[in-house]
């Protein structure tokens, strides 16, 4: 039975014009914080520990842990986003993965970002056919190549508003682009509330299942679809999981799940409202951006790199959060465990026999 949609209340409901300069989501490292990171990492380097094997206990933070706890609260109970600025990239050159993984471990549990078990992805223009590299090529029914969400991310082209498959997506800017690459952030709660006010019929459709593809991420995903609503609520808390690319891919894989014109209209309105209410964020080297995927849509403008010296590079973590909200039961098809605080999300690993 489809629930009757109701307005989402709380500080996660915002428009970009209201929050652009609000200090509540802006945090910065102090000299003491940087010194603490340096000490924690120096101990790791002395032990020769790979960043992939780190635990939270291997990277002790006391003073900074309090600031990171405030980031956790802002992500789940506040605006749904946070920026932590002024990590000295040059000082930590060659050690950034240890530093970034250590910060991530103090916020949540890193989860896998592809079926091969990657815990940290480099977001950059690969200038290659990443779909072919990962055996996830899909063609449309008219024989043309279909570019997966993963391939779009690893290019310098624009990205449409979407969410990632984790509680929180975390991005560390190692190098910004020469031009472009502006991060666009929108409150999915504000998008939901505006649609509920202007077109409640379309808002209701987004509480019903939309088929998505696992193409480009799960092993064998080019042949798999699953049904999941775009909007959901449980215990008075909201969640939205949305990526139009996966919906479009599912249409190509299985035409029996073809969406109605009204369902497409609902997706069109969602995208338009995200553009209407979004704010923009331009990465500087050393910026760390954290986004709660349950209440934030993010997008990116196209960007340009210099040939050699200035090539955009972000290190990405996907985090399962200890203070996360409970999700509707029908979201288990993607999240596996929908209970509050559960380790969840990410990409399932390929089987040993695959």
Mean pLDDT: 90
Examine the coordinates and then state which fold CATH places here, giving the name of the CATH topology. Answer: Double-stranded beta-helix
The CATH architecture name reads 4-Layer Sandwich
- Total number of helices: 11
Output the CATH class name: Alpha Beta
Tell how many strands the DSSP assignment holds. Answer: 19
What share of residues are in beta strands?
15-25%
CATH 4th-level superfamily: Clavaminate synthase-like
Unreliable sequence segments: 129-136, 140-144
Q: What's the quick description here?
A:
This protein is an alpha+beta fold. It has a single domain (about 15-335), classed as Clavaminate synthase-like (Double-stranded beta-helix), CATH 3.60.130. The chain is built from 11 helices and 19 strands.
Note down, in words, how this protein is organized:
The protein is of the alpha+beta class and 354 residues long. The protein has a single domain, classed as 4-Layer Sandwich (Double-stranded beta-helix), CATH 3.60.130.10. Helix content is 30%, strand content 22%. The chain contains eleven helices and 19 strands. Strands 1, 2, 3, 4, 8, 16 and 19 form a seven-stranded mixed β-sheet that branches. A four-stranded antiparallel β-sheet has the order 7-17-10-15. A two-stranded antiparallel sheet has the order 5-6. Strand 5 and strand 6 form a beta hairpin. Helix 7 packs across helix 10 (261-277). It starts with 15 loop residues before the first helix and ends in a 19-residue tail after the last helix.
